[in-house]
UniProtKB/TrEMBL annotation:
Segments traversing the membrane: 50-69, 89-112, 132-152, 164-186, 192-215
Source species of the chain: Saccharopolyspora phatthalungensis
Keywords from the named record: Membrane, Transmembrane, Transmembrane helix
Name of the protein described by the UniProt record: Uncharacterized protein
Lineage: Bacteria, Bacillati, Actinomycetota, Actinomycetes, Pseudonocardiales
């Protein structure tokens, strides 16, 4: 396969990850907060299939996203002419975001698994698992902010895609920053809604970027104008 085909495969992985994440977010039921462990337990028990599907789709999104992150590193390294500018930070933030996404689904899957045996479930256990999932929204939001801000800066500098996609990334970064910081100090539905908005905005942004990469592979743009930091 030539480089253009490989680029389309990398861009396609971003689109698949965005769709998986978006579907998982839209499927996720608005469960009661961790402060109501009894309601949380019975709500998850009543929606066990949906909760497990949500966790599975989000986990798959995190795994597929790794391919897209590797693709972005390749594009940025080529655009930067071998100079390590944004590419290492984008790569590290993307790997961290994927890892935390997968880990954040473990408490949710554990809660759904517990509903098969009411005898082993206690209010304290349900509370702790629900709180672990909620607290994961903090690191997730901050990693979204870092990834979107650095990748967006590269786009604004015309290292890849178009400046408007980079400015969109800055908006996503701001949303992620607010959601990430607030999750450490606040609780209840605000944190849940902030996390949902962050996830949807991030999925839409990644999906837009992937579609543009599929429409015009970056190798065509680089051949037209050369590396950003070549001199």
């Amino acid at each position: 396969m030539n480089e253009r085909t490989w680029e389309r495969m990398g861009a396609g992985s971003g689109l698949v990850a965005a769709v998986l994440l978006l579907v998982s977010l839209l499927l996720h039921p608005a469960a009661p907060t961790a402060e109501e462990p009894v309601l949380t337990f019975f709500y998850i028990a009543a929606n066990r299939g949906t909760v497990l599907l949500t966790a599975l789709l989000a986990t798959l999104a995190g795994v597929v996203f790794l391919w897209f992150v590797g693709h972005l590193r390749h594009l940025l390294q080529r655009a930067e002419g071998g100079v390590e500018a944004f590419s290492p930070v984008v790569f590290a933030a993307g790997v961290g975001l994927s890892t935390v996404t997968v880990v954040s689904m473990l408490p949710v899957a554990a809660l759904a698994s517990m509903t098969r045996n009411v005898a082993i479930a206690s209010q304290s256990t349900v509370f702790v698992l629900a709180e672990l999932h909620r607290f994961s929204l903090g690191p997730l939001g901050l990693l979204v902010a870092l990834f979107a801000a650095t990748a967006g800066a590269a786009m604004v500098r015309r290292e890849m895609l178009a400046p408007w996609v980079g400015w969109f990334g800055f908006v996503v970064a701001l949303i992620g920053l607010v959601a990430g910081v607030s999750s450490f100090y606040l609780s209840g539905q605000f944190v849940v809604v902030a996390g949902l908005v962050t996830g949807i905005a991030f999925a839409v942004w990644v999906g837009d970027a992937a579609v543009l990469m599929l429409y015009r592979p970056e190798v065509d743009r680089v051949q037209a104008r050369g590396a950003a930091f070549a001199h």
